Amino acid sequence: MSSTHDCGSDAAAYALGALEPAEAEQFRAHMDTCVVCRDEVMAFQQVADALPMAAPQQPVPRGLRRRVLGQIHEEARAASRAAPSRRRVLMPRPALAGGLAAALAVATAGVIALASGGSGTAARVIAASVGHAELRLADGHAELVVNKLPQPASGHIYEVWLQRGGAEPSPTKALFSVTSTGSGDVDVPGNLHGVSEVLVTEEPGGGSPFPTTPPVIVAHLS
Amino acid sequence: MEMIRDGEVRAFDVIFDRHSGAAFSLAYRMCGRRAMAEDVVQEAFVSLWRSGARYDRGRGSVRSWVLSAVHNRAIDAFRRETVKSGRDVRDDNLAEWLAADDRTDREVERRDEARQVRTALEGLPGEQRQVIELAYFGGFTHTQIAEMLSLPAGTVKGRMRLALSKLRMTLADGIGLVS
After folding, report:
1. Nearest alpha carbon to residue B31 among B68, B82, B70
2. Do the interacting molecules here have an ipTM over 0.90?
3. Which part of chain A is CATH 2.60.40?
């Protein structure tokens, strides 16, 4: 952000969802380093969250409940048919931000515990039922190497996320696919200062501003 | 939400039943078209289901989380359209839409909160209320609003900040929805 950046005004526009997509992405990156903006957004977001109350209340149209829950139930049945044993696997987990433990149970993502990042620190290999991956940290640079990861669905891509403590996962520009044998690698952008987990999910092509599927890779940075 | 994190479909049914009314109301207020609003609500709840592990209690209520997803999906839908139209078109079967007369304590409380939020919005200066309406309910970016109103982008952002600041003060004193 420039030296003339007005933290307050951008925070208000961000909370309202009124920044251009590229501006919003830039502002999210800015918030990583600006406590003023983080505090402003938190305050303004509370107000924005109350605005829906001003909408005239309508009853839910007939059929909508059946369509929505019908789709949910079908996806749940499909997931259960695809990997029934996964649901009974609860990976041992350290304290995680809201609900990631369940994501592990659903996705059976392997967990790696890395030594602190730094020059020459070795990474352990992730053992995952849908593939293998390791996060290689060296001199503050991170590279994610995957093997045997299923190719994403047509029109989809794998996206890398950074999670800091209890915050929502932050999207990155690291989008990747894999070869026919499931191999691939991608640089994890940005510094990993304060990052507690590196995640990978399958998203629509071009990426997504928030995860829409459970993670297929989870890497815990200790 | 504990149960939803374990993928319990039955728990998700409860989540839908509790929050779908508010979700559809917001979607319809933004879209103005029943079919589009229904699609937005469906997309939002499906994304909630698929990322059910991502709800974090520290981020607010379940309702806020659901409505945030609806808001984001509506904006995505607007931006996919080549032309934004039909926002004010009346839907058919209007009689079917009369709100149910629900006298549960929680519904009475919610109607009271809704009235206070509407009053707070009406208490804003016209130019501030206008940018809030266009941004939040209209899904327009500050750039688009500036163009629509022939204003500098900085002015639009400034009005947004003033409006949210004033609403924050009003709602903190009133319904205590903000701290």
Report:
1. B70
2. no
3. 122-220
